[in-house]
Structures are given as structure tokens and as C-alpha cells.
Amino acid sequence: MLGPVILAASRSDQMRRFVSVAPGTKQVVDRFIAGETVEHVVPIVLDATDKGLEVTLDVVGEDITTREQACAARDAYLDLIAHLKDLGLGTKAEMSVKLSMFGQALEDGHELALANVRPVVEAAAAIGTTVTLDAEDHTTLDSMFAIHEELRKDFPQTGCVIQAYLFRTEADARRLAASGSRVRIVKGAYKEPASVAHQDKGEIDKAYVRIMKILMEGDGYPMIGSHDPRLIAIAQELARRAGRKLDEYEFQMLYGIRSDEHVRLAAEGHRMRVYTAYGTDWYGYFMRRLAEKPANLLFFGRSIITK
Ligand code: FDA
Question: Which residues are substrate-binding (predicted)?
Fold first, then answer.
């Protein structure tokens, strides 16, 4: 029951101000956010790759309100790519982007987001890596998929995310699987109405399995974004039945969540990519992590009280 309340708070400026300055916040945020700057995150990337893991890097930020902020988001990713170039990790370090951070919700936002994300995708390709477009709330997805399709004309390796809780997603999965795309499947982290999304956890899990099956049997590259041990076991079985080798799909998990499992799956020979978020505008990302596991909220509450 707490999850939807926290998700509603994730869009409140008043809560943002309160949470951002509350004593004890930093300690909890640090569990999910790998640092504030690219200089903080580079050693974390190297540590992960030394352990046999791969990463997808997210400069946190979303729902920006000016064109200048959208350009700043583009520049932050270009700066990240300049640092990655020196590391020579290729696709072991890719990037995830939220189009709302690139201006998607502003006037002419679709064109603006495409214009801002294209140089990032180009620069990523120039250093031998790629970009995945994150999925945000359902109102943004037609634009996200159109941008994805447009980018794939020149950069076919560009990935996108689909969310199992949405009714539309099985159809999206079929289309993307047939087109040979890289696709990350996740359960979905936003507050969505019952008119567009399953509300029941069991229904979401069943949809997740149906969608994984479509992706595993299709022509694309499935990226299984989940910490759920049952879904991970089912993914392995579906991949085996579809005749996929270990390098023909991958698992993805979030930085700070089930870290032992990251290493265990990599040690078994799986491609395991850690979604590593960094930056200063962490509020929305952090609140979604609290909403996913209300026990995190308890920990957060305690750390505020004991400070
Ligand atoms: P579930 O929530 O059932 O969790 C399974 C277990 O994992 C829990 O029992 C717990 O042990 C652990 N766990 C999960 N979340 C935790 C948390 N926050 N803190 C502590 N433990 C936790 N969503 C979206 O809408 N758009 C997107 O683009 C993305 N991108 C994305 C990338 C990657 C790599 C991942 C792993 C996830 C996303 N998500 C996302 C988030 C996703 O939609 C979903 O909210 C979370 O992954 C939680 O769902 P699980 O599948 O992990 O299952």
C-alpha cells in the first residue's frame, strides 16, 4: 500500500525539498547512487568490470523544465563518454538515458529530445558502445518508441525498455523482437492507472514471463532487468528452450540491490550488467527505489531519526 504513496511523493516539489535536506538522507541515497560526479563513478565502473560485470550508466535527472537543462543533460552524457573513451571498455560500459531529461515534455519536446539524444548516441557509437532509452510513464512511450525507431536507422544497436505492468507491452515486445532490437524488460516503476496497467503483482509477474518468452523466441537481444529470483530462473529456462547461448541475452540489476547476485550470475558465465546511476538530481530515482521496497522507507526513516 505504501508504494503508490511514495510514487505520488516522487512528483512533489515540497517532498523533494524536505527529503533533499533531511539529515540522514545522504546515507540512504549513497546505497543506490554511485556518486555525484563522473570522477566518482569511474572507479566504480572499473571495480565492476574487474569483477566480470558490465555496466549501464545513468546520469540521474528527469522532468526538466527548460531547454537549457535539456542541453546540460546532453552535455553531461557527452562528458561521460569522453571519460569512458579513455577506459576502452566498449559495450562493457553502455549508457541509459531518460528522454524527459532531454526535453521530451517541453514545447516541441519530441523533436528536442531527439535532437539532444542523437549526438549522445553518435558519440557512444564512436567509442564502440551504445545507449538504451529508459521507459518512463505511459504518456511518454509513443514518443520514446518513435525516437528509438528513428535512432535505430543509423544506430541499430540502440536499445529501449518495456514495462511488464502495461497492457500495451506484449504488442510492443512482438514488434521489437521482430525488428531485432536490444530490449530491456522490467516490471515498471511508475504510478500507472488501472486503465493502462496491471495493478496486481501476480498479474505483472505473469505478464513479465509472457513477454520474456516473446523476446527470447524473437530475433532481438533480450536484457532481463529484474532482481526477482523466480523470474531470473524462468529467464534461464526460456533462454535454454529458445536455444540461446549465454552471450545471446543478459541480466541487468540496479547498483546497490542484490549485489551478491550480480557476482554470482557473472561467475556462472552470464552477462550481468549493473545499472549504475550517479549525479546530483537523484530525487525521482531514489523515491522509486523506496517505493519498490517499503522496508527501505523504514531504513530511511530510522536514519533521519537517529541523525
Ligand atoms: P521485485 O520488486 O519483486 O523485487 C524482487 C526482489 O528484489 C525484492 O524482494 C528485493 O529483495 C529486491 N529489490 C527490488 N527492488 C528493491 C529495492 N528498491 N530495494 C531493495 N531491494 C529491492 N523501471 C521503469 O519503469 N523504467 C525503466 O527504464 C527501468 N529500468 C530499469 C533498469 C534495470 C537494470 C532494473 C533492474 C530495473 C529498472 N526499472 C525500470 C525498475 C523496475 O521497473 C522495477 O521497479 C524494479 O526492478 C523492481 O522490480 P524487480 O523486478 O526487481 O522485482
Answer: 98, 288-289
Has 152 been annotated as catalytic? Answer: no
**pLDDT single digits (tens) 119-166:** 999 999 999 999 999 999 999 999 999 999 999 999 999 999 999 999
Has residue 83 been placed in a domain? yes
Residue 295, domain member (yes or no): no
Owning domain of residue 64: 34-281
Residue having the nearest C-alpha atom to atom 5 of ligand 1: 228
116 belongs to a structural domain: yes
Least confident of 1-10, 64-73, 218-227: 1-10
Per the structure, the count of domains in the chain is: 1
- For residue 164, the CA-to-ligand 1 centroid distance in Å is 12
CATH number of the structural domain spanning residue 259? 3.20.20.220
C-alpha–C-alpha distance, residues 303 and 203, integer Å = 34
- 48 occurs within a structural domain: yes
Instruction: Indicate if ligand 1 lies below 6 Å from the C-beta of 261.
Output: no
Q: Is 262 in the pocket of ligand 1 (CB under 6 A)?
A: no
* Nearest to 212, CA basis, from 189, 187, 245: 187
Predicted ipTM? 0.98
